Please model this.
Amino acid sequence: MADESPLVELRGIRKSFGAVTSLAGVELTLGRGEVLGLVGDNGAGKSTLMKVLAGAIQHDSGEILVDGESVRFASPAAARRKGIGIVYQDLALCDTLDVASNLFLGREPRRGPFIDRAAMHAEAGRILRDLHVRVPSTRQEIGRLSGGQRQTVAIARAVSTQPDVLILDEPTAALAVAEVEQVLRLIADVATRGVGVILITHRLQDLFRVCHRITVMYEGRSVDNALVSQLDTNSLVDMITRANATDADKEAASDH
Amino acid sequence: MTTDTGNETGRPPGSAGDEAGPDNERGGAPPVDPDGRLARLWSDANKPTLLMVGVTVLLFAMLGLASPDFLTFANLSNLATQIAPIVIVGVAMTFVITSGQIDLSVGSTIAFVAAISAELLVAGLDSSLVIVLGVLAGAGWGLVNGWLAAYNNIPPFIVTLATMSIIRGVALLRTEGFSVPIDNRLLLAQIGSTDVLGFSIAAWLALVVAVIGAILLNHTRFGQYVTGIGSNEESVRRAGVNTRRVKMFALVLTGAMAGLAGLLIAARLGSGSANSAEAFELTVIAAVVLGGTNLFGGRGTIVGTVIGAVITGAIANGLTLLGMSPFLTPIITGCVLILAIWLNLRGRDIAQLTGHLLGRRE
Ligand SMILES: Nc1ncnc2c1ncn2[C@@H]1O[C@H](COP(=O)(O)OP(=O)(O)O)[C@@H](O)[C@H]1O
Ligand SMILES: [Mg+2]
Model:
């Protein structure tokens, strides 16, 4: 990407919660059609970084560029307008609302001042069918679904907003093998359509399956960055566990 | 995996991934199962509310047997007038409780609007103007509650406990505790004494408020977000909704409806008093919770609230007919509130509830 600006670029993102510094200067780039694996220990700051990018929390300092344009998301709605879609690690569903209501939360189809429930359920059915998501009914309360079903509904919600950037924060944690396969296919599929995908996962095999590049986070910093084609399982594990990082505390210098 | 709608097609759960082709995915479609209609109605129905319908029928039968006057049209019409303010405020309170909040200041707002509107009438203002001002004054207090609770993150329980004292205090200060008579030739007094088709205007207004409330709760984005916020506020916020505004508006609703109820109570009594509607908030909360609206939020039912109001009203009405002391009513209301909360908790303990009301935050 010589002269063309990347889809997303994060520069020196910092975020503290009171005395806790969650992000201490993170660099990250994402290209169009690229699948980026974001890895690191629990507590490394991956989810916090993605919440910043999705507008769910506001960073203290640093810069977010989308399509080369510097942006600052005051709210999740602002990020969504810029084409950011996200599946949160905690899914962000409302248990007492039904499947269709959760799918369309914040963007319910309306007829006049009223929610067009018929259209909403029909469209929800179509979306879930297209993504091969199986739920007993779109009128089922989300709280009564299994963990895997909830997760697939959350993924369907993010994908159905047709984002330019799709963030998946441990999207397969509660899924059965076949469902994981489906999500991986979905990721590859949207990426070929030009969507940039950020995938957070602890499953190494998934990283090798769909990711083009891996960015490693450690204690609130981005510390490593490598093309998947240049990695094997051992070197990836070394990267994540920072087996070679003892000699010199190599900062995020190799990030570009 | 819950399959209690009976809609599953028999494939094992977890086989979602196999997709040999779109044509064998029929089972993958969320089915519109014609046979499931009854089952769906049953599963959609609010069980506590259904239970309350049964309780109401039983209660009416018992009171009818105990007192021959209870089931007369005149008494039922009278009952409708008595419960009208409870329904009007209760409908708004349903939104507040469903959104995970509470409003303890409604009784004080009723007293404030009743007293101040009577004063304004004495000062010579036109009734129609006073009615508008009364509702706006209530909404104004609601705005204060909402701004403090939603925008300044003070738990609504605390905010409205404080404004409960402030609002009635202002009214007492202005009227020095005297009740202000309303000239019965004025339009507002006429409203309190006119019947339409055998029912008071207050009763008809309560019906209108309940219908609008049900539509608002079940068929608009506002109602959807109220329910969603009560279920998981952060999820609704992350979906791009201005959750603070929604929560504030719910409290504006209770304020405005308390204002309307204050006008109707002053109209019926022919006077406005800063001492009226004592402990009214308890009656309203009892009615709402008794009807099946979840005290933790996330689940609300307007029909349930109306039923809850009918039950609390019928008990008070029946006691009077049976010649019992009217001072029994607050005792019964308190007992009903405890019973309602006990039914409502269903497994959760009271410590959780206290934590919730006092604003345990994420
Ligand atoms: N709202 C918050 N308040 C305080 N600390 C937080 C908050 N959110 C995240 N943190 C802290 O930030 C750090 C990074 O967390 P997180 O982004 O969830 O890590 P990861 O997703 O990589 O496991 C953790 O130490 C966590 O405790
Ligand atoms: Mg995380």
